[in-house]
Design a protein that fits this description.
This is Amidohydrolase. This protein is an alpha+beta fold. It is about 35% helix and about 25% strand.
């Protein structure tokens, strides 16, 4: 560990981390357009004299690079990722530092970004404590449409090549979460795909259905058939979710519409199961279209892959955290989640792990879930998150 007292030094910068988080909380931006957020982050990096490149994703993503100066040469390159985007939600927390626009940081990404700035501050000050290179990935668009893959496509995992990648999510993501740090090897989060189906028939007066090609009748069969995919085509022990979440069609009580529209989500942890569900949806649409003499058209969108943590990296991270924190801070998760996260894209490029920081914030006497207008995080644990990343970094790069 050299001369750095990790917990003491993170406590010393705790007020900075909280100040950064609150400033970011006031300016939430959406998707792949984060000009104010990027401006704030680069301003802090400039003050810290950290080298960065903010040209990625049309100037909406940042890669900061810190090279260790310890005498031992190392080819190891550790990437640490934080997402920066907010959500189109009107904030109702009543916090003094509430959003000043119509968006909200309702998923903790303000905390993620502030923590990574804290990591930058301490690593820049202690470059003599490690060899190798640290890349800090400030990512847009996690909520939508996905910012990890565009960054990868533009080369953030290369020059130098990342050999390990880590990240963490704040709030209360898993119902199993306790303590502060929650880790799991293997599958952690699902691939969150989207499907939409348009059924086009022939509309007619509701009194004369025989003259129509009724898309609503076809819709009933479609919904029933889709619900049997999980129960009849997927092994019971294999996690999978198929949810129909939107149905639109019709204009009046006595008119059979020409067209109805269905939308939903598919969540899987296994790539073979993912493909099988996609194939079954295609077969069902073709079959119902032929049976009901109408057109049943499927659009299936592959979103992020399933998030799979590397077993060895997860164990290394757990060991590092166990050396720094008491057992009350640490928890091993048993079950994966069916939510999605595009950190999965980075984990397909290099071995790594993604873990959960349990820091739910209390508003009006209780914690309100992620993506809720009263969502908040507990700022008192932000410096512990910085300490965790510093410890993991120094252990890996020494």
């Amino acid at each position: 560990m050299g001369t750095i007292d990790i917990l003491a030094e993170t406590r010393q910068i705790e007020s900075d981390i909280i100040q950064w988080r609150r400033a970011l909380h006031q300016i939430p931006e959406l998707g792949l357009e984060l000009p104010q957020t990027v401006g704030f982050v680069t301003h802090i990096l400039d003050k810290l004299e950290v080298t960065y490149d903010d040209s990625y994703v049309n100037g909406n993503a940042i890669v900061a690079t810190i090279v260790g100066t310890k005498n031992t040469p190392s080819e190891r390159v550790l990437a640490i990722r934080a997402d920066m985007d907010g959500l189109p939600i009107k904030e109702e927390t009543g916090l003094a530092f509430s959003s000043i626009n119509d968006n909200m940081h309702a998923c903790g990404h303000d905390g993620h970004t502030a923590v990574l700035l804290g990591v930058a501050k301490l690593l820049q000050a202690h470059r003599d404590q490690f060899s190798g290179t640290v890349k800090l990935l400030f990512q847009p668009g996690e909520e939508s449409p996905g910012g990890a893959q565009p960054m990868i496509d533009e080369g953030v995992m290369e020059n130098p090549t990342v050999t390990r990648v880590i990240g963490a999510h704040q709030g209360a993501i898993s119902p199993e979460s306790t303590g502060t740090f929650n880790l799991k090897s293997g599958p952690l989060m699902a691939a969150p795909d989207i499907f939409s189906i348009e059924i086009t028939g022939q509309g007619y007066h509701g009194a004369y259905p025989e003259s129509s090609h009724d898309p609503i009748a076809a819709l009933g069969q479609l919904i029933t058939a889709i619900q049997t995919i999980k129960s009849r085509n997927i092994p019971a022990i294999e996690p999978a979710v198929i949810s129909i979440t939107r149905v639109q069609g019709g204009t009046n009580h006595n008119i059979i519409p020409e067209r109805v529209f269905v939308e939903g989500t598919v969540r899987t942890l296994n790539e073979a199961v993912r493909q099988h569900i996609k194939d079954r949806l295609k077969q069902i649409c073709l079959g119902i279209g032929a049976t009901m003499d109408l057109d049943c058209s499927l659009t299936y969108t592959d979103m992020y892959p399933a998030l799979i943590n590397d077993n060895q990296v997860t164990e290394d991270v757990y060991h590092s955290l166990a050396e720094l924190f008491s057992e009350t801070h640490l928890n091993r998760l048993e079950k994966p989640l069916m939510g999605g996260e595009d950190m999965a894209c980075f984990l397909q490029q290099a071995p790594g792990t993604y873990f959960f920081i349990h820091n739910p914030g209390i508003i009006d006497g209780k914690f309100h879930g992620h993506h809720h207008p009263k969502f908040d995080i507990d700022e008192s644990k932000l410096h512990l998150a910085v300490a965790a990343f510093i410890k993991i970094t120094l252990d890996y790069l020494n």
